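Entry type: protein chain
Record version: 2
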Amino acid sequence: MDIKTAKRIHFSGIKGVGMTALALYAQDRGIRISGSDVADQFVTEKILTKRRIEVAEGFAAENLNKDVDLLVYSGARPQNPEVKAAQRLGIRTLNYAQALAQMVSDKAVIATCGVGGKSTTAAMLATILSRTGRKPSFVVGVGNILGLGVPGRYQPGKLAVVEADDYVAVSGIDNSPKFLYLNPMITIVTNIEFDHPDVYRNLEETKRAFQAFFLRLPKGGVLIGNIDSPAVQSLFQSFPKQGKNVEVIPYGFSPQASWRIQKVVMEGGRTEVRLTVAGIRLKLALRVPGKFNAANATAALIAATQLGVAQTESIKALEEYQGTMRRFQPVGIIRGIEVWDDYAHHPKEITATLSAARKWFPNRRIVAVFQPHTYSRTKALLPEFAKALSLADEAIVTDIYGSAREAKDPTISGRDVARIAAQVNPRVRYCKKDHVLEYLKQKTGQGDVVLTLGAGDIYRVGWDFVRK
């Protein structure tokens, strides 16, 4: 049975951002949806409630109603009793990566991958294609795409924009990188970094996974990549020898980029981007900050151009792009203190976000609240985290947010991150998450900018600070 012919799908672990986006896509196709997950609060809960998708608390065989004919499960929780019950009852099961690939198999797929930027680039491209009447489908792993109103949507157009993940489909069970299930016609790679030490031994292994994904492009496909990333640059140098008549388009600040970003100016709450391609000068105006967003917008513009969208139309659509949840998202202002939130969880992402904050808020005191994500990543990249946090005027490090896919490692902690980081920036300190709110109340004042960072639930601190 093809997933698109299912009558009722149960999403086990539905609150995850990718799972929610895929569930919305399936619901748009007329498929009845139910789901289950842990009781913890997720950024997706508001959209699930709005779409009237029933979510059972906890995982249990009883959640599988008699009319469920397919179970889609999150790779983060493969051993939950719903998967075993489905197998016992003869209900077909698919992990998220398999389900996504099947769901978009009747579309021309544009896939965005990389460590940092893939969600935003996908959201920007979905915005361009939507604003210019292409009626695209999309599945983006964010809580919401502001301006489009959903993170996932099915529409009758021929195109589907999807976020492609390099993490394995189901650790220990299906160790294929998620993106290897996809068959894109256009692939965008925003960068390549060593980000998953629990599944890749080093950067070279990570690069091999991306290389395998690039080779899935068909004859006549297009590979668009940020040449400022050394790992992307090295793969691009060898790819033409291995590729099957695939067009390779490098972009970035580098002189080697065919779409070259010449200048980025952030002023008055806007980012002006000037770039050149084939001797032609283009200018973008964005509502979101940072050189990294200038690069993301450039990638989206290239892809849209490849798809036949007039550049003037794409540029106008990018001017209307409002961002996504948890990507340099404004949370609110309280007592003259601005609170922002970002998903940055890798040292390169933290560096990019804090550098953007410096330009976006000149002469303001930047207070970063960082929650490390996964024990393996924190341990492997500890020195890099310390250096990245030095860019804040003051940084608070909380306890590590562990993933369901790994066991707790008592040899690494948030306190260790703060201790090492304080050697670079003495204004870095450790604070239990439960105490951060009180600390911010006492230690921040008018004109300060508080920026919560991390892939866990640290965003709640910013929300609570503004509310309370």
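Comment: The mean pLDDT is 93.
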